[in-house]
Amino acid sequence: TSLYAYQGFSRMPAVQSMAPDASQVTLFYPELGVYGASLQGAMLGGLLSLEGGYYDFVDDREGINPFVENPQVRFLAGYQRAFGADLTLGAQYYAEAMLKYDAYEKTLPMGFPKREQVRHNVMLRATQFLKYQTLRLSLFAWVSPNDEDYYINPEIRYSFTDELWGAIGGNIFGGSEAHTFLGQFEQNDNVYLTVRYGF
How far apart are CA 149 and CA 180, in angstroms? Predict the structure, then answer.
């Protein structure tokens, strides 16, 4: 179990002011406090993880500034289990719940896409070792049901020696809307090749 607290600034900039014709925009990093707790332990032959946190965006606690995030509650639940020595399966559920949602709806600028009050995410991971654990096949998938977008990362990794390994994989994005968190990267699908030597 653990407790944590953070006092600082959001990593996502927000609009502070803009010219009437929107030709000039001034950005700033909103003040942010985060308070949460996590719990991890063995359960049903696997590993269960739970985490929750409150995100306090100090600059807009009432949710009336459409350019600053509203306060949020975030929650993560995960479960991972090994099947034998060579196969591991895991699943996670992650949710972000926006507070002051009525204020968000009232102040949302015309033409901006409206976010759901709760954003749901489901993540799955499978890892299979073969050939005396020198060959690793892995698949990671992230789906957001209410945003209708996804991210898939398949990878094959082979250890040639204890010092040298190589991997080939891909990053695949998709979504029904171009403004969603994962859907915005739909044109950024890619294949990668990695070779690493450690000594």
Answer: 7
